[in-house]
Amino acid sequence: MTPEARFAGVMAGLFPATGPARLGLAVSGGGDSIALMHLAAGWARRDTLHVATVDHGLRPQAAQEAREVARMARVLGLPHTTLHWGGWDGHGNLQDAARTARRDLLATWAQGKGLDAVLLGHTEDDQAETVLMRLARGSGVDGLAAMAPHSDAHGVTWLRPMLGLTRAELRDWLRGRGIGWIDDPSNDNPAFDRIKARQMLTHLDALGLTRARLAQTAQHMQDARAVLETATDAAARNLMRVEHGDIVLDAAGLDALPHETRHRLVARALCCVASTPFRPRLGALRAALSATTATLHGCLLTRNARVLRITREAQAVAHKRAPLGTVWDHRWTVYPPDGAATDDMEIGALGASGLAACPDRARWCLPRRSLLASPAVWQGTRLIAAPLAGLAPEWRAFAHDSAPRITPQGSFALNVSL
Description:
Blueprint: H1 3-14, E1 23-26, H2 31-43, E2 49-55, H3 62-75, E3 80-84, H4 94-113, E4 117-119, H5 124-136, H6 141-145, E5 150-153, E6 156-159, H7 167-176, H8 193-204, H9 211-239, E7 240-243, E8 246-250, H10 251-256, H11 259-274, H12 282-289, E9 293-296, E10 299-303, E11 307-312, H13 314-317, E12 321-323, E13 332-335, E14 346-349, H14 351-356, H15 368-372, E15 375-379, E16 382-385, E17 396-399, E18 405-406, E19 412-413
Parallel strand pairs: 1-2, 1-4, 2-3, 4-6
Antiparallel strand pairs: 5-6, 7-8, 8-11, 9-10, 10-11, 12-14, 13-17, 14-15, 15-16, 18-19
Helix pairs in contact: 1-2, 2-7, 5-8, 5-9, 9-11
């Protein structure tokens, strides 16, 4: 069966009726994403497709590559947008930061365009490489489930219609039609784990550990994950409550859960508090759960005999600022009282210096460690309001989660993209 037919079959399964009104295509310029653009253009009406390229600004050639993708999109009659990342702030892992920035930029673009879904160009090779890397990291069921064909995160539906196609056959298909693509030199850099996995796969075929077999393993794990998700939903309803953005879990009930359900439930909570669709590594999660106090995934976990509390880590938000009236740390909005002047005000973490200006502990809504990372209103270095610490309580802080959501009843509505 040709790539066109297989692509069309997958898309027909995803949209069995009349098809989506508007679709986004994430196109970097590499062979996989260029194939995605051409396959999608052959399947859908041109007026339903919108193309975006993320320029991370990490290589001098990136801007020219984005312009080349724009040119190729115009040839197909497709509108194109280049999305620019402001750059790495030097905190955390560069690759993780770039991946998160790419998703954030694409999500904002898709929401602004009113798109029904964004298509990503991942292939069977990407699936196999991901499974292999996660095997090396000791991942559990979720990690080995790897890339799902359909997921919801950051308020956007993400689709991977080419997981059943290989990188080689897509490039053969492009060559047969005289279509070129851009080779990113980092795709041959063995300093990256994915490139090491890609190179290793060429030596594993003799053992029967083929790309297809690893992709099949991912499918089996996705089926297992669906069963485990149901158990985790029930555990969340019974054991979890939300306190002003913190997630609090009953310690005894948590300990009584099977290991897999316990890990899944805490990972969900971490993703909610950190507002990320990517769960922590299993080994790091296990280590954090064995301690009375631990930092993980941008969160602080503290445990006593009664509860496990998960709050935002103060250090993770210490440098984050957002203009008043926008969303801070992906989930907090602060509302001023009626008629208040708000010129030059920003939302930022309360921090130790801000908390020192809130000495009335009777007004504190949360423990001290939680308040350090709570939202406050600043005018330069002047603290205006800290609603959760009792300073200017007429200001209101509201936590809302864009990708991982928690219902008022305390149950999760969360789809973690892995």
